[in-house]
């Protein structure tokens, strides 16, 4: 596998999850791409670990950007989005928060959710 996060032209979504480092970094990613699925996770969370390969696959297979926020490192950012449990998945479309779900969702449900916003 190539380690390059981009698979082609500028503006195309990365093929692997983007690890968020700050609130401004998340804002930049949300503003730079049409559809962003943010995974608020914790390294000690079992369901988060089970969701990891699903999200990596979605990053590669869909036009959405998958962004990951470690709630232990960025507690204030998690609080901003009302994250009370992990994993929490927040979907942004065109810079606006569109959906939020707490708990791991199956790959097909996540793919359908993403495609509902990318096929417009």
Task: Give keywords.
single chain, Glutaredoxin, disordered N terminus
Please provide a written account of the structure:
- The chain is of the alpha/beta class.
- It has one domain (18-118): Glutaredoxin, CATH 3.40.30.10.
- It has helices at 23-32, 46-61, 75-80, 107-118, and strands at residues 18-19, 35-41, 65-70, 88-93, 96-102.
- A 5-stranded mixed sheet has the order 1-3-2-4-5, sandwiched between helices.
- Strand 4 (88-93) and strand 5 form a beta hairpin.
Strand arrangement within the widest β-sheet reads 1-3-2-4-5
Outline, from the CA principal axes? globular
The assigned CATH architecture is: 3-Layer(aba) Sandwich
Uncertain runs: 1-10
Short characterization:
This protein is of the alpha/beta class and 120 residues long. The protein has helices at 23-32, 46-61, 75-80, 107-118; strands at 18-19, 35-41, 65-70, 88-93, 96-102.
List the helices and strands and how they pair.
Blueprint: E1 18-19, H1 23-32, E2 35-41, H2 46-61, E3 65-70, H3 75-80, E4 88-93, E5 96-102, H4 107-118
Parallel strand pairs: 1-3, 2-3
Antiparallel strand pairs: 2-4, 4-5
Site (Contributes to redox potential value): 46-47
Protein name: Thioredoxin
Region (Disordered): 1-20
């Amino acid at each position: 596998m190539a380690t390059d996060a981009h698979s082609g032209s500028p503006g195309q979504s990365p093929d692997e999850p983007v690890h968020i480092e700050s609130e401004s970094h998340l804002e930049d990613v949300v503003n730079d791409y049409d559809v962003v699925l943010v995974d608020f996770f914790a390294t000690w969370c079992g369901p988060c670990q089970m969701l990891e390969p699903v999200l990596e696959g979605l990053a590669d297979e869909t036009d959405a950007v998958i962004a990951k926020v470690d709630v232990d490192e960025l507690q204030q950012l998690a609080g901003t989005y009302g994250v009370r449990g992990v994993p929490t998945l927040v979907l942004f479309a065109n810079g606006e928060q569109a959906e939020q779900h707490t708990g791991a969702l199956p790959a097909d449900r996540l793919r359908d959710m993403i495609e509902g916003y990318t096929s417009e």
